[in-house]
């Protein structure tokens, strides 16, 4: 984060503009945690700020401080539209392309606000006046910490901010497990714990929040898993009928894809989830095997080297047939 950009942001904040903070569609722990972390930070400086999300987020993040004050376009399009239209400063967090804001994209495209992007995905688009992009960062939450630090304001990090940021670092690193987890990640986590983030409580809030239905759905997912030894690839399918049978709620299928990678010698795991008009796909991989490039090339998606997503327009059978056909292209 260069000093000129930080000075520019300080000047912008001095103007006391109306501010919106935007996460990507289907916000995960890092998106919600970073938005709320930045929100509470700006609140400590009495800024006029709101978080506006394209759609709802899982129950297991609803306990985050002031999660209930997030304006959700799907639930209240009028309030969301008004907030964005009146904003003069807009932070977009945890995404690299305006199209990831989904229903909010047209509003953002027509906005004349000054944009600031803070994100750790590869290949950021060039829509923001200031772009903080660090694909090596474990999470956008750790970048929010670095941003506050660069502002010379580490002491402003209180228990509330620390809790939000810790949550996103924890979820985006797979509980401090992925290759993106460095000694610096632990240093930041340590600082946040010192400031009052409660590790075991946050873990419990996020991961010990399953419904019985979700566990039953997981058993269906694991039963449906196919392992292609010759491709070191595991994939799971879940049809809309199977989802409905287990009363699937937002976030219920999160993490299922990771089980594929626990198979010895596997290098690629995928899950195909049937939505109303398309198949939503998540990919996970090990080491240098690049699912970001794969999702971009074949599934109109993207993400990171070892975690990416995309979509397929068609039936489940067509999606898996296409996947099997192009699989030899995955490296
Ligand atoms: P997940 O599989 O957990 O939904 O997402 C894994 C990673 O890929 C996340 O960083 C997410 O932002 C990104 N991602 C998921 N779906 C899409 C997509 O459709 N397009 C793009 N560009 N990125 C995606
Ligand atoms: Mn993230």
Automatic annotation (TrEMBL):
InterPro entries: DDH_dom, DHH_sf, DHHA1_dom, Oligoribo/pAp-PDE_c-di-AMP_PDE. Residues 18-169 form the DDH domain. Pfam families: DHH, DHHA1. Keywords: Hydrolase. Signal peptide: none annotated. The keyword Iron-sulfur does not apply. This is Bifunctional oligoribonuclease/PAP phosphatase NrnA.
